[in-house]
Hints:
The protein has helices at residues 59-72, 108-123, 136-148, 166-175, 217-231, 236-243, 249-259, and strands spanning 22-26, 34-39, 45-52, 79-85, 88-94, 99-100, 184-186, 195-198, 201-205, 212-214. It is α+β, with helices and mostly antiparallel strands. The protein folds into two domains: 13-94, Phosphorylase Kinase, domain 1, CATH 3.30.200.20; 99-259, Aminoglycoside phosphotransferase (APH), C-terminal lobe (Aminoglycoside 3'-phosphotransferase, Chain: A, domain 2). Strands 1-2-3-5-4 form a five-stranded antiparallel beta sheet, covered by helices on one side. A three-stranded antiparallel beta sheet has the order 6-8-9, covered by helices on one side. Strands 7-10 form a two-stranded antiparallel ribbon. A hairpin with a 2-residue loop joins strand 8 (195-198) and strand 9 (201-205).
Amino acid sequence: MIDPEILPRDLPESLSPLRDLSWQAITVGKSGAAVWRITLGDGNAVFLKTEPVHPLSELPGEIERLNWLTRMGFKAPRVIDAEQSGDRLWLLMSAVPGTDLTHYTGQPDTFVRAYAQGLKRLHALDTTTCPFDHSLDARLAAAEARLAAGLVDESDFDTARAGWTGPQVLEWLHSNRIAPGEAIVTHGDASTPNILALDGRFSGMVDCGRLGLADVWQDLALACRSIAFNIGEQHVAPFLTAYGADWDEAKYRYYCTLDEMF
Length: 262
């Protein structure tokens, strides 16, 4: 029996055949979008994601990025359908094999290995074909726009910045701006729920709406923070060794602070 409270009331007509299938709301992660896993009749699954139409909506950009990743042959969801209905955007995607790394917290060695595998593969993609700019100029401009639009959640800041306001974070980012290194293809939100593994090995990435060219520490900072939170700080060094990077305190602090705006 399908719980009618789970189903979106404003589902576009083109997606209405999905109504009679099995829906599961996905609550892992902090995205402002709503996401459901929908089991098909053959046992396979698709994912449906929706968010309100807004000048700063990330879903149109995610669709472009997923299509680019598909062309690159990278393991990420494939766009099945994209719709705008009324005041909402909708994205229907294929499922990526495996489960996210929150299911591997009891296996720290596997957790660290799969994390490093995934980021190394993403970061090896050809930058000359990537049209998405996530340089500091672009990200700081986006942060300023989000702050002005009231989209920065000050109640969700990390402990290191608890009690700060959005304007204080933005001022700190401008005052302490770092010199970024070589631009590579980064995920932009490389936290644990967005990295998947199957049989103990990396199997794909999801929630790719912030993918773009940036310093490697855009991803390494959020990965290190996520690893410390999920399995303990003692596993950060082994992760960096597996990835092939040295600790950079300044960049770690900067990119974690930048992430408060998103």
